[in-house]
Amino acid sequence: MAKRSRVDIYSEILEALKRRGPTKITRVSYAVGLPVDRIKRFLTDLSSFGLVRILTGEDTSYSITHRGLEFLEAYWKLASFLKFLGEKTTLEGDSGEL
Amino acid sequence: MGDFTVPRNATVKLTKVDGQLHLLERARVQAEGESPIEISGEVICEGDAEIEGSLTCSRLNVDHGRVEISGDLKSTGEIDVEHGELRIDGSLDASSVEVDARLFVGKSATARDFDVGGTFDVGGSINATKVEVGGSFRVEGDANVEEIDVGGRVEVNGRIKCVRLDAGGSAQVGGGEISRTIDVGGTFASLKPLKFDKIDVGGTVTLDEGGEGGTIDVGGRFESKGNLTFESIDVGGTVDINGNGEGEEVDIGGMLEVSGNLHLKGDLEIGGKARIGGILKLASLEVGGMIEADLIEAEDEIEVGGRLRTTKGTKAKTIELGHRSEAIGVLVGGRVKIGDNARVEDVYADTVEMGERVRAGNVYAKNARFESRCRISGEVRYSEKVEAESDVEFAKPPTKTDNLPKPPL
To answer: How many domains, chain B?
Structure first.
């Protein structure tokens, strides 16, 4: 598996939150496969970007915001285009003209 | 025997317990003989535990530990692993399963629902109503699951039969049928032919041996490496069909490439480019940029803003080319309208209207009109009327005939 970038990890955290609703940090840690202390730093970043909401109470939990959902949608689209461009920048015989 | 407790670090041999089995930290239980250990009540594990052999129980509860079972596990009730993981080398059969971290099943897995926080790995096949996994879900054999919801990656190496597949990251299946929605954030791939109703993918879709289904809605790129039957395709980026395509309608923001024929009962709209290796048959066509095909036949209208290129020609009730557009290949239509500054080759039509400064080859029409500064390099034959501005350049003077040449299409 290729090394995940910080943005890849952000997206995996957001996916976990999108699916489960308010989620405890341990569950996010299991889903993303990173230790709790590192996940906590990422969640703090995401919260400061407005992509994640921290829900304080008896047990702190985290949920995705509407901006987080928008980020996630844009991330997947861009990731696929970047992958496509990396594989094939032009079609065979494509003159590039219109 | 009533309730039974195995102390810390202890190893015991068991055949049957009429009551609860309580395993303390690092307890080990061994089955006597080949038969499974039968526990009539609940099995509770506090910390790590190991069971050598198969186990049947009414419920399994694990707290903060890793539990390993070398045989099969059958539970009439729930399996609940909090802050821990469960490894079963044999098969698993339970009413429902919830594991916080990791679940590994060496052979087949059966339950009404599975909820795994981290990774779920099945060495055989799986049967379930619902599978929810936070991280990744891998099945070596077939998956017969109504609903799959995974945050990260789904990998089913055998055939899939499911109603709904929802994955945040990526999903790969070995063909089969997904009767309702495939909803994947990143990439989706099927290694064998796939039947589907709806594909809704944010990133990329690849069908390695084609497929048969309903609507395809992809944000990025869609690729079918085999024949594809569909109702509609709506793709923001690019579509690549290596084979023939057959469906109702197609709307693509970027680029379409079909190596074989494309037959549509409805319309094709493309913002960018389209390249069809074979014949394109459809009701109507609208291309903002460029289209290439061996032959294009539309029942109604063709409207091209940029470039239209065919080997055998283009035929439609109405053909309309935009300003500065270019058509390579013969055009055959009831009405053919060419925008200013466009370039076309031969045209066969009932009515031809050419805008200013259009360049054309031969023109055969009942009626033709040429705006200012058109230049016709071939011949013009008409059966009813020709209207031309005085500065139109004809290589040969237009000739009236009762028998117009038969269109090649």
So the answer is: 2
